[in-house]
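FORM 12-B: Structure-to-Sequence Request
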């Protein structure tokens, strides 16, 4: 039998021991080593320039991108379809995430899908116009380009690609262009604008990245010349309110929503609970020809959870029947709602949204036709005619059509953070109802501070003014206090997190009934009561 030599064993042990002793040093050395220097890339340089020249253009509820071509005059190029047929009184431009200014349309070219809007540049001291590429050819297939803009729900972003094809009136590229990029610049490696990002072409299945299209920049100089010829003086610098960057923590929203669900299902002494009648405080309100909904991140989550509760219950029953489903694999509504909302949308942005929806009613002639049909059937039955009568379908129409919206707090108009009106087409055709009508609905976003109690602790008076395109009237009404009082209370958790040292003053609610005698003065008709909650 051959025995290993002791020296060999000792040597091996020493090697292993040295390796173990040196490993932390090697690991630490690898962790602590920093790069000798970072070289600024071309993309980083171009992005830094774009930060001071590429803006977010908002027109009502829609948004696109635009870029500065004349820093002195404040001319910003964008796509004409970004403006579209929307109210040009609602145009504004975000110079950065915290600076929004009004804008006005200077010139439009719908055929070329280009437009120039003007902003006051006093609030943008670092703004610099982007240079426009020139010469022939303007760009070549295979040339590298970069697209800048505000896609989807994102801040300023950059994508890159190659020019895939150069066609009359269009440059095709594989650089990513999404909704919201429209109007942004497509630049070459020298930082000169070669095109205006306009569209994206994908197949029906949305397989692959698709191709994007841009309008060649050589169509812009003539538009700038028109703008200079039609110059109407500089704009006054006004800083408009902006949508906050902070988000309502999703976990906190879900936790409060679970508390509301539990309290809404109580059997006794519900009124003493904080949220015992929350569902009644979220009811829609009628203002003239419109239905008003007041939405907050919390009310959205509560509504979403209520609508999904039956499906959630069915899933739990299936899991209960199935053996061996690990706890971490079981369905959880809380797990499904994550803080990714911060990056993909505005569902948990701490704002109050007011939805203005036109009411629907039966047309006069339709109601008359049905009434005559019923009367004819009754007359026939009285004469012994038992013939089956077919009721004509009810023809429905929108009563309202939003043209403009104004919110006042204690008599002073408050500008929304964002808002506008968009057409809503409703088509119904069956044996009972027929409707084919279009009317604008409104959606307006406000800071919750609008509904904060006065310094004296008193609730404010909130008034809504809605211009109805249908009858050319301004429909005005005072918003019931329970609606905006509940909206303000919905942000208690948010303020406790973001302003922990500041006391949050909640509204309390009293159930009040008012009779006709009280509101009608000299009216002596039979008294009926209207009851609702009032904020105090």
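FORM 12-B RESPONSE
SEQUENCE OUT:
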């Amino acid at each position: 039998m051959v025995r290993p030599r002791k020296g060999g064993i000792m040597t091996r042990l020493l090697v292993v021991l040295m390796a173990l002793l040196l490993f932390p040093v090697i690991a630490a050395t690898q962790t602590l080593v920093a790069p000798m220097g970072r070289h600024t890339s071309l993309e980083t340089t171009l992005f830094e320039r774009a930060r001071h020249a590429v803006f977010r253009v908002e027109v009502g509820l829609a948004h696109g991108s635009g870029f500065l071509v004349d820093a002195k005059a404040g001319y910003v190029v964008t796509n004409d379809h970004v403006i579209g047929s929307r109210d040009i009184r609602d145009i504004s431009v975000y110079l950065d995430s915290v600076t929004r200014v009004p804008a006005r349309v200077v010139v439009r070219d719908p055929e070329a899908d280009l437009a120039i809007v003007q902003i006051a540049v006093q609030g943008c001291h670092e703004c610099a116009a982007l240079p426009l590429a020139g010469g022939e050819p303007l760009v070549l297939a295979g040339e590298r380009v970069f697209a800048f803009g505000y896609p989807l729900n994102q801040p300023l972003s950059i994508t890159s690609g190659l020019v895939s094809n150069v066609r009359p009136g269009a440059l095709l590229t594989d650089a990513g262009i999404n909704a919201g990029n429209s109007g942004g610049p497509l630049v070459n490696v020298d930082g000169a604008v070669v095109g205006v990002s306009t569209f994206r072409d994908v197949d029906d299945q949305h397989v692959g990245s698709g191709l994007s299209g841009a309008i060649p920049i050589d169509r812009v100089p003539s538009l700038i010349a028109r703008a200079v010829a039609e110059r109407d003086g500089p704009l006054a610098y006004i800083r408009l309110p902006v949508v906050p960057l902070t988000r309502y923590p999703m976990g906190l929203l879900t936790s409060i929503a679970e508390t509301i669900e539990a309290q809404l299902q109580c059997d006794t002494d519900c009124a003493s609970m904080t949220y015992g009648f929350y569902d009644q405080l979220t009811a829609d309100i009628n203002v003239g020809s419109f239905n008003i909904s007041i939405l907050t991140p919390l009310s959205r989550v509560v509504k979403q959870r209520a609508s999904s509760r039956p499906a959630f219950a069915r899933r739990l029953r299936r899991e209960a029947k199935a053996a061996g489903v690990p706890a971490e694999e079981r369905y959880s509504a809380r797990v499904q709602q994550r803080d990714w909302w911060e990056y993909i949308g505005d569902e948990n942005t701490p704002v109050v949204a007011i939805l203005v929806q036109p009411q629907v009613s039966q047309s006069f002639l339709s109601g008359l036709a049905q009434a005559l049909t019923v009367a004819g059937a009754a007359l026939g039955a009285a004469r012994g005619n038992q013939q089956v009568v077919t009721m004509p379908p009810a023809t429905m129409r929108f009563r309202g059509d939003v043209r403009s919206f104004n919110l006042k707090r204690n008599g002073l108009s408050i500008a929304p953070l964002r808002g506008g009106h968009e057409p809503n087409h409703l088509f119904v055709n069956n044996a009972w109802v027929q409707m084919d009508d279009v009317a604008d609905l409104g959606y307006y976003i406000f800071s919750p501070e609008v509904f904060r109690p006065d310094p004296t602790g008193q609730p404010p008076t909130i008034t809504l003014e809605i211009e109805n395109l249908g009858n050319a009237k301004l429909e005005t009404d005072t918003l019931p206090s329970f609606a905006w009082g509940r909206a303000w209370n919905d942000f208690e958790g948010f303020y406790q997190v973001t302003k922990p040292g500041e006391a949050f003053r909640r509204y309390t609610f009293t159930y009040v009934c008012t009779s006709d005698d009280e509101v009608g003065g000299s009216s002596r008709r039979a008294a009926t009561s209207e009851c609702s909650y009032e904020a105090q």
